[in-house]
Design goal:
By secondary structure, the protein is α+β, with helices and mostly antiparallel strands. About 35% of the residues lie in helices and about 25% in strands. The chain has helices at about 5-15, 45-55, 60-65, 105-110, 115, 135-150, 180-190, 205-215; strands at about 20, 30, 35, 70-75, 80-90, 90-100, 155-160, 170-175, 195-200. The chain has a six-stranded antiparallel β-sheet with strand order 3-2-1-6-5-4. Strands 8-7-9 form a three-stranded parallel β-sheet, with helices on one face. The longest helix is centred in the C-terminal third of the chain and has 15 residues, at about 135-150.
């Protein structure tokens, strides 16, 4: 078991939403909106990198060191799934982890307006769901896709850097883990699917592919 797995378990047991691993502090969990330290030693640049690199593969480490930022998903059996953001600060590598809810809320439970519900009926075009961190982008997308999955016969394809609470019937592909690159994953899905789900920020090349594929 990786060292950080113990932090994830404690985080889940206490009902926290996030885990922060930053040099100069002990591991911090976000509990009821407040950052609370775990009873662990203060993280040094060396100890934090050792803990974080334990759950990264060689390719993922290389991308992180080159781009200074990397997103992925991590799953711990009997505990949950976690959305991971690795980053560099002036004192070294750090990371923030958010637990992913296992239950997909419906459009009705989210009390979304009728205009949002009608998005599920769109057959052509591009729909953008944007907002700051924690605003509910992934929750909204999951509800929309779940509704389409239950009411329509569509071939869905999801290409993303990190796992999200999407319906299990949808084909999900994580770039870098299951494809050579994010643009390549997008390009491969354009011709054969009815609905493409892009769950992450993407560059100019990927935007051109999307515009061409959704036109």
């Amino acid at each position: 078991m990786a060292i950080i797995d113990n932090h994830f378990k404690e985080m889940s047991d206490k009902g926290a939403s996030d885990l922060h691993m930053m040099v100069g502090f002990p591991p911090l969990i976000r509990l009821r909106g407040e950052l609370v330290p775990l009873e662990q030693p203060i993280l040094t640049a060396e100890s934090n990198q050792e803990i974080l690199y334990e759950i990264l593969g060689p390719v993922q480490r290389s991308v992180l060191e080159k781009q200074k930022d990397f997103d992925m998903a991590y799953e711990l059996r009997d505990v949950g799934r976690f959305r991971c953001n690795f980053l560099y600060q002036h004192r070294g590598v750090g990371a923030v982890f958010r637990i992913i809810p296992t239950e997909i809320l419906t459009l009705e439970q989210l009390k979304l307006p009728e205009a949002v519900c009608k998005i599920c009926e769109i057959s052509r075009g591009m729909v953008l769901v944007t907002g700051p961190t924690g605003s509910g982008k992934s929750t909204t997308l999951a509800a929309i896709i779940d509704h389409i999955n239950k009411t329509q016969s569509k071939h869905h394809y999801s290409s993303n850097h990190r796992s999200t609470s999407i319906p299990i019937k949808i084909i999900q592909r994580r770039s870098l883990e299951q494809s050579r690159s994010y643009p390549q994953a997008l390009k491969k899905c354009l011709a054969s699917t009815d609905l493409k789900n892009i769950w992450e920020k993407f560059g100019e090349y990927s935007q051109r592919l999307c515009r061409r594929g959704f036109a």
